[in-house]
Known about the structure:
There is one protein chain. By secondary structure, the chain is an all-beta fold. The protein has no helices and 17 strands. The strands form four sheets. Strands 1, 8, 10, 11, 14, 16 and 17 form a seven-stranded mixed sheet that branches. Strands 7-6-9-15-12-13 form a six-stranded mixed sheet, with no helix packed on it. Strands 2-3 form a two-stranded antiparallel sheet.
Amino acid sequence: MRATVVGRTCVVLGVSALLLLAACGSDETPAPGGTEAEPGTEAEPEPKDLEARITIAMGEELPEMYFADSDGERGGAFTIPAGKIVGIRVINSGELEHEIAFGRGSDASTGEFEENLFASLPSDIFVFKPVKVEIEGSVFGEIEAEPQGDFWIRTVFPPETTGEWEIACFVEGHYDAGMKATLIIE
Ligand SMILES: [Cu+2]
């Protein structure tokens, strides 16, 4: 299953077999589970009720490509707790389209993980700009992000998911160019 987040004027998210949502050219769609920054503050909007959060930036410094944290550190490990409402903000700060997938047993030749973290773990997907979109209880294999794409994944990792996972971009050549990182659920 594939989902696409476009950073400019059109967002199309096809996240689960039950849910296909398209919203283009409007910023009127409310995001009932999300929260907006208070007027007059500079805070970025984020999903409601988060108890922990991480930011994963995607980008490239050719020929290298990377996942980095908010301090610019590449490759992780990104650490996030189990049993809490967590938000993973994903930003494509590069100039190329990327995707993000979470799993174990990566195979860059097929572009898939043997075990996909979110394939059976429902999460809520939030986009705040350029349209506001919230998709609840979705499962996905990977999410594609255009340059400037910026979205959140909100979920609760159950205890059986604790341990080490891999983050990868399987756009052709990107994994080998460095788009892999470690995610630790603890
Ligand atoms: Cu990539």
